[in-house]
Amino acid sequence: MLSGGNAAATPTTGAQPEMRVDTTQLKTTYCNVCSATSTSEEVVLTYGFNSNWDMRQQPMEIALHHRIVMSPKAAKRFHGVLTQLIAEHEARNGPLA
User: Fold this and answer.
1) Per-residue pLDDT averaged across 2-15, rounded?
2) Taking a C-beta distance cutoff of 8 angstroms, is the pair 86, 51 a contact?
3) Which residue range(s) make up the domain with 56?
């Protein structure tokens, strides 16, 4: 379970530890471009923004804003969360192309 706050994760007596998430430094960025690479030790996701409305415009300019580096195990958990999120979205709104 996630709840807002400033404390670190705190174990409780239940099956799942309580987790408090510090959002005071949270930044939001819109991205419409993503690439992924990996090595045996890490998975790298790079996010950016393509501001071109005309996709035929050359050269296409993409501003890269964020790079997220995680372990393959964390990437697999992220994959599971993202897969579930997309399935729920499609159940509510119809299939994505």
Assistant:
1) 53
2) no
3) 2-93
